[in-house]
């Protein structure tokens, strides 16, 4: 099914079976397959207020696929070929280590990273861990729209801080008296990650681009974050990232003083949706 065919099916369901009018479809979360994007571009013609949000976990997973580790990739390819289909080897591994051997799955997030973790490729583990945790947190339940921006910030900070404890420990142990060689190995290892980091920066590195702008603005709907941010009328303009709120911005600005006053006394255990 191509994008046009999928769009036709979606429009049939939305407009005929569900009888949704053009202003009633507000947002869509979807897999990032190209056919879905093409279909949504057509659907937006009938539903212009639609906010189209692709799967963030998919983006984070694709970052890892862009890490360029030629030596490790060759090793992992042989590891999978030699051991993944041998029940005897798996049994011996479990007997020796006390836990089951991690297997590779084409469909499970970061399964290749889990194998990398066993062989301790330091640079990938040090930085990849932040992407892995973010991937699974964004696959969770709850009010994710209110926490997505913080998850993105955590990863940005991990990249900026450049803390590679495993990598540093390994190069120090390998070459304790050669600082120049240590620096060369660290630079090479971090360089292997650059293509993945460039991809992340292109997709989620800019606060002004969607969907990051929408997730950043969504924090204004949390009384806890409002207390922390203390937004002004200018901050309310950020909510224009949600197409269906564009006509409500002035009303929201009018309500902001009262909203801030109400949010000031909110208990930490309050249900945000009910509040």
Map the helices and strands.
Layout: H1 3-17, E1 27-30, H2 34-46, E2 51-54, H3 56-65, H4 70-83, H5 87-97, H6 111-119, H7 122-137, H8 148-161, H9 165-174, H10 179-191, H11 194-204, H12 212-218, H13 223-229, H14 233-236, H15 249-263
Parallel strand pairs: 1-2
Number of strands: 2
Radius of gyration: 23 Å
- Work out the count of structural domains: 3
Number of helices: 15
Q: SSE order, as H and E?
A: HEHEHHHHHHHHHHHHH
Helix content: 55-70%
Compute the average pLDDT.
Answer: 86
Task: Provide the β-strand percentage band.
Answer: under 5%
| Strand order in the sheet with the most strands | 1-2
Low-pLDDT residue intervals, each spanning 5 or more residues: 112-120
Distance between the termini: 43 Å
Largest sheet entry: 2 strands, parallel
Global shape: globular
The helix-and-strand class reads mainly alpha
Protein name: RNA-directed DNA polymerase from transposon BS
InterPro entries: RNaseH-like_sf
Keywords: Nucleotidyltransferase, RNA-directed DNA polymerase, Transferase
GO molecular function: RNA-directed DNA polymerase activity
């Amino acid at each position: 099914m191509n994008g046009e065919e999928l769009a036709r099916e979606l429009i049939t369901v939305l407009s005929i079976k569900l009888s949704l009018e053009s202003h009633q479809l507000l947002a869509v979360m979807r897999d990032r397959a190209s056919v879905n994007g093409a279909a949504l571009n057509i659907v937006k013609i009938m539903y212009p207020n639609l906010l189209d949000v692709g799967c963030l976990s998919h983006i984070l997973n694709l970052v890892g696929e862009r890490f360029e580790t030629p030596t490790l990739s060759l090793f992992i390819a042989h590891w999978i070929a030699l051991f993944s289909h041998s029940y005897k080897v798996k049994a011996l591994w479990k007997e020796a280590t006390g836990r089951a051997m991690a297997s590779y799955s084409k469909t499970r997030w970061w399964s290749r990273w889990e194998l990398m973790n066993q062989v301790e490729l330091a640079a990938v583990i040090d930085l990849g861990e932040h992407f892995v945790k973010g991937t699974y947190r964004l696959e969770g339940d709850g009010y994710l729209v209110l926490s997505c921006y913080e998850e993105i910030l955590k990863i940005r900070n991990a990249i900026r801080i450049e803390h590679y404890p495993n990598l540093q420990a390994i190069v120090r142990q390998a070459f304790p008296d050669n600082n120049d060689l240590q620096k060369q190995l660290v630079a090479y290892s971090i360089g292997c990650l650059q293509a993945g980091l460039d991809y992340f920066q292109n997709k989620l590195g800019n606060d002004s681009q969607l969907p990051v702008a929408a997730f950043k603005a969504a924090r204004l709907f949390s009384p806890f974050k409002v207390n922390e941010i203390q937004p002004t009328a200018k901050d309310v303009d950020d909510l224009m990232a949600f197409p269906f709120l564009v006509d409500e911005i002035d009303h929201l600005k009018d309500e902001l003083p009262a909203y801030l006053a109400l949010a000031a006394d909110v208990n930490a255990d309050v249900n945000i949706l009910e509040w």
